[in-house]
Amino acid sequence: MNETKSAFYQDKLFRRIAMGSTGIGFASMVGSLASLNLGTRSNFQFTWHWTILLWMGAAALFNWRLWNALWQYQGHPNPKTKSRLIIFSAGTIILGVGSFLYPIRFIASSNYGAILRGLLTGVFFLGVIAVILVSIARGLNETSPQPNEEIP
What we know:
Structural class: mainly alpha
Strand order of the largest sheet: 1-2
Number of helices: 5
Order of helices and strands: HHEEHHH
């Protein structure tokens, strides 16, 4: 049986679930950011306006193109599909980091120092955890027996 034809990512139900669920997530995230405003008492408010639909549509379109880039690379790995996937992956990272940092624009400038310290502390500790996990994974891969190798 052809491995490409039987690959999990070729399943139409999986594609619909993956694209639909992440599309709803992206559209909700971008739509909520588009509706975010600073209230009269320096609190966050969500205000509806028609441009939210445009932002949600743009996020859904980005999601659709991201998944198509991934599936094209899996079906036909070549430099063109790889570079397209890298571009969309970078876009996803930028979208995620930007949506996390966007609400900072509503914070008073006198609080920027404390916010920056907290963000840098979080980045440092998440980086340390990532290094530890990668080191553990590499160590487990080096010591795991090969498929044809017998365990002593």
